Structures are given as C-alpha cells and as structure tokens.
UniProtKB/TrEMBL annotation:
Belongs to the iron/ascorbate-dependent oxidoreductase family. Transmembrane segments: none annotated. This is Flavonol synthase. Residues 36-142 form the Non-haem dioxygenase N-terminal domain. Residues 214-304 form the Isopenicillin N synthase-like Fe(2+) 2OG dioxygenase domain. Pfam families: 2OG-FeII_Oxy (PF03171), DIOX_N (PF14226). It comes from Salinomyces thailandicus. It comes from the Eukaryota.
Length: 395
C-alpha cells in the first residue's frame, strides 16, 4: 500500500492567503471524454481489480494519451496549500527577483522567472503568462535561485515534488510498464530520470492573466500553441478555468473539463518512442477562456517528468506487446524517429532533443515555423525540423 503524502508543518512561517478557486464555466462545451484512473487500485490485493485498471489505462492511452488520475495520495487540502503557495509567489515576487532570476530559454531550460512578455529572455509581445520554473538548481540551492518570498516554504514544495516523483509518477510508470508487459519498474529504471527531487524534470507555478482586447485578437484566442511534451509524463493539476484543449481521437480540439483534485496526465514523446507508437504523445494547447471566465486568472501547477538526458530513445523491443503487435507508425514523433533509425542515423539524446526545442522553438505560431504549413489527411499542421526529425502539430 502506497503511503499518503505527509506535508511539512506550516507553523512559524509567514501567513499565506488562501487561493479561492474561480467558478467553473457554465457554458455547454464540447468536452473531451477522458477516462479516470484511480491510482490506489494498483495496490488492490485482488489481481482482477489490478488487471482491470491496467486494461482501462491501456484504453485511455490508446484513445487519448490523456487521462484523469484520482486517489493518488494527496488530499484536496494539501493540494490547495500548494496553490496557495503558487499564488503567494506571483503576488509577492519582487521586481529585483524578477530581474535577478529572469529565465534564459536559449540555455535549454525554462529555469527561473518568465515575465508576461513572450517566451524569450528578451521582452516580446504581451502574452499574459507569468511563470516560475523550479529545476534542480532551484531545489539544491534555493538561497541563490528562488524568490525571497518563497524561501520559507521550499521544504513544502520539495516534499510535494518528491511525492509526485517517487510515489505518483513511479506508480503511473508501473501501470504503463504493465501495459507493455514488461517488469513493473522497467520504465522507472530504464527511461525515467529521477535523481532528487525530480531528476532532469521541473515543476512550474504558472499564472495566466486575462487576455483581452487587442492582445486577444492578435493571438487569435490562443494562449499556448499546440504542442506535445518531450519528456515521459506531465502531471497537471485540474483547475476550474477552462483553457486546456487536447487534439482528440475525433481529430479536433476539445476542452478538458474541471475535475476537482484530479491530476490531468499526458504522455510525452519519450514514451511514444519507447512504446513503438502504442502510447501517444498527446497534442494539446491552451486557449482563451469561455466568456463567463474571460476576466478570471488561471493559476496552474505542473510537474514535467523527464527521460534520462544522455539516453538515445529506441523502442523497447523486449516488450511482448511490441513483439506481438509490432510498431504503430501513425503520424507522430515515433514515425519520424523511426525514419532516422531505419536509415542508420543516430537519433538525438533526450537532452539534445529537449534543449533545442526550448532554445529555438518555444511557442512560435504555426504559420511562422520553419517548415511552414503542411496538410496531412485533410488537417493543416505547422512543421518544424530538429536534428533531421520533422515535428508536425495541428493548428
């Protein structure tokens, strides 16, 4: 039985105002129909219950690549404490810390503070998205690398990330390993970067300010353009402000509905390649909110879990599933990697792959991408190319 999350004490720390979740939209939207995985069932003594859970997860991954994760060991009160801290950071970070800790994506990471002026270190057009991203340096040396206002609470943030890494994500990877019919810790041991507290991954406090008027018009209602994540798994906590959309099995963008306390999980490109295309790196984007939420701020907590940096990803051919059913070469990153592998060309390491995308291609409009617009099966895609690998994402 997996242990429940135990948060460090709050006594003696500065008072932190409570985050008040906005009201969910009342609009009738074309919601994505995501499956819900109750993670605690993995500990059931009944083999049939566990097998049913594995099969449901397999269906969710095959159909959507996105799923809701519930009953994973963190209470709603504990989760809201983390939202309190994220709100506190954005409300109290000083102008000096914003400059001192300003990020530099050209370095290959999003570490530090992102202002509301685009996805480069240099100021660009207003996008209304503010972030603070915690990587290994922020955890190892918070005295130098995090805002002054959040330093008293770093023990809580670290404990939270540790639990997400070593309990939630590890159990999730166990489920995915079972789908591949491999040993329970195959993906954890061979793919996942998990040095303290979350390996080469990172944790994000994001705040989306309302995007109105000319700014909304200029961005055509899109806050973050369609993309896939390049790591293993992404753990995003469901929030009431509707903005996240996935490219669904119906070949269209559909919004993800608020599920209080749930984790919204999507799989990254690393697992699509390892699985030989059986797992999908899910395409998703963040859009303008419905009209009844257009003046709401959207506070977001996300943990991006990374694959081992110096590893060159190839399919796990030892998987009985792959041996029995072969590869699934549908449009996606695995199809493009396979072209390189078939040609005998080395694929990039995981670190090379994520660094170049962060450094050169963060949130560029599809029509401005180097490969322009390409039509695939009647759908228009924006196209990039890195290390000979073509990346095409729906507009």
């Amino acid at each position: 039985m997996a242990a429940l999350f135990s948060s460090p004490p709050t006594e003696g720390k500065p008072e932190v105002p409570k985050w008040i979740p906005p009201e969910p939209t009342k609009e009738a939207l074309d919601w994505a129909n995501l499956h819900t995985i109750e993670l605690a069932l993995l500990d059931s003594p009944d083999p049939q219950v566990v097998d049913n859970l594995v099969q449901l997860t397999k269906t969710a991954i095959k159909e959507d690549g996105f799923l809701y994760l519930t009953n994973y060991g963190i209470s709603l009160d504990q989760l809201h404490r983390q939202f309190n801290l994220a709100q506190y950071l954005h409300r109290n970070i000083s102008a000096g810390d914003k400059e001192r800790l300003l990020w530099n994506p050209q370095s290959g990471t999003f570490a530090g503070f992102k202002r509301r002026l685009g996805w480069k270190r240099e100021a660009g057009d207003y996008d209304g998205i503010e972030q603070f991203n915690f990587y290994r340096p922020q955890f190892e040396d918070p005295e130098s690398n995090v805002p002054e206002c959040i330093k008293p609470f770093m023990d809580e943030i670290i404990a939270f990330c540790e639990y997400l890494t070593y309990s939630v994500n590890r159990r999730l990877l166990k489920l995915l390993s079972r789908i591949l019919e491999l040993p329970d810790d195959y993906l954890w041991d061979n793919v996942q970067s998990h040095e303290w507290p979350l390996g080469d991954g990172y944790f994000r406090h994001a705040l989306f300010y309302p995007l109105l008027g000319e700014d909304k018009e200029r961005r055509k209602g899109v806050r973050m353009y369609g993309h896939t994540d390049y790591g293993s798994t992404t753990l995003l906590f469901s929030v009431p402000v509707t903005a996240l959309h996935i490219w669904s099995k119906h070949n269209k963008w559909q919004p993800v509905k608020y599920n209080p306390g749930a984790l919204v999980v999507n799989l990254g490109e690393a697992l699509e390649i390892i699985s030989g295309g059986h797992f999908k790196a899910t395409k998703h984007k963040v859009t303008a909110t419905p009209e009844d939420q257009e003046h709401c701020e959207r506070l977001s907590l996300v943990q991006f879990n990374a694959s081992i940096g110096d590893m060159r990803l190839t399919p796990a051919v030892a998987s009985p599933l792959l041996q029995r059913e072969g590869f699934v070469p549908s449009q996606g990153i695995f199809q493009q990697y396979k072209k390189l592998m078939d040609a005998g060309v080395p694929v990039p390491t995981n670190k090379e792959w994520r660094d170049i995308q962060i450094a050169t291609n963060s949130q560029i409009a599809p029509e401005s991408r180097p490969g322009g617009i390409k039509e695939i099966n009647g759908v228009k895609y924006g196209v990039d190319k890195f290390f000979g690998v073509e990346v095409a994402l729906p507009r």
